Amino acid sequence: MTVKQLIKRIFLIEILKGMALTLRTMFTKAVTRQYPEEKREAMLGFRGLHALSKDSSGNMKCVGCGLCVAICPSKCITVVTSAGVRHEKVVDRYEVDTLKCLFCALCVEACPYGAIVLTRHYEYSGYNKDDFYMTKERLLENYDKYMGEEEGRVYLERFWKPRLEDFTTPEDQAVFDKGKKA
Ligand code: SF4
Ligand code: SF4
Questions:
Q1: What's the domain count of the chain?
Q2: Which range marks the domain in which residue 2 is found?
Q3: 64/80 Cα distance (integer angstroms)
Q4: Are 21 and 65 in the same domain?
Q5: With a 6 A CB cut-off, is 103 part of the ligand 1 pocket?
Q6: Is 73 inside a domain boundary?
Q7: Does residue 154 share a domain with residue 116?
Q8: In a domain, 129, yes or no
Q9: CATH code of residue 139
Q10: Between the N and C ends of the chain, which has fewer C-beta atoms within 10 Å?
Q11: Do 27 and 55 fall within a single domain?
Q12: Can you tell me which atom of ligand 1 is nearest the CA of 105?
């Protein structure tokens, strides 16, 4: 133990510092908010209730690739797809069990299309588990209610990587071509 530490211990410097801080703040205005009467709006980027984002034509962006399902640490996302008439992938079900969710936003980061987002909305309660089970329809509704086109654009611009929406293969990228001989 150094001399400085010894002096601090003998004269209870830390305790005196703590008491001085208490005295200083004792007569200042309390910072505690009287929720729910007093509310503070959550900032954009807050990890609130999930939503499935839509493009400018109002169509769901999700293509059912399952990357969000794979990365989700609490396994609370379910995606069920089927083949459409033109053999395209159709997202039949997209569900999030918010009671299991950690609100880590890894799903948002993993999604290559910016299709799943976390809105600012955090005030939701319910009397049964179903109230917290977000189906595809509810998630799309959440987007309209708690984010919307303009806010969604700003949100994805600020928080979503990559920022480009061009997913075509770059010309210089090595690709596996079955017909090509080495
Ligand atoms: S926020 Fe995290 S825990 Fe919640 S659904 Fe997304 S990846 Fe899963
Ligand atoms: S939300 Fe994104 S990552 Fe998840 S299935 Fe849809 S497109 Fe894929």
A1: 2
A2: 1-31
A3: 8
A4: no
A5: yes
A6: yes
A7: yes
A8: yes
A9: 3.30.70.3270
A10: C
A11: no
A12: 1
- Each residue's pLDDT, cut to its tens digit, for the chain (182 residues) gives 788 888 888 888 889 999 999 999 888 888 888 998 998 889 888 999 999 999 989 999 999 999 999 999 999 999 999 998 888 889 999 999 999 999 999 999 899 889 999 999 999 999 999 999 999 999 999 999 999 889 998 888 887 765 555 666 667 666 666 555 54
Measure the CA–CA gap between 52 and 137, rounded to whole angstroms.
9
pLDDT given for residue 161 in this prediction: 63
H helices of the chain, in order, are 3-10, 13-26, 67-71, 106-110, 136-146, 148-159
**Is the shortest distance between the CB of 64 and ligand 2 below 6 Å?**
yes
Q: Give the tokens for residue 26.
A: 């004792």
Q: Cβ(72) to ligand 1 under 6 A? A: yes
* Beta-strand relationship, 77-83 and 116-118: unpaired
Contact 79, 68 (CB under 8 A): yes
In DSSP terms, 80 is beta-bridged to 93
Give the closest residue (by CA) to ligand 2 atom 7.
62
My answer on whether 68 and 131 are in the same domain is: yes
Q: What are phi and psi of 75, to 5 degrees?
A: 50, 50
Q: What is the pTM of this model?
A: 0.75
Which residues lie across from 94 on neighbouring strands? 79
- For 25, phi and psi rounded to 5 degrees? -95, -5
pLDDT the model gives residue 182: 47
Distance between Cα 127 and ligand 2 center (Å): 29
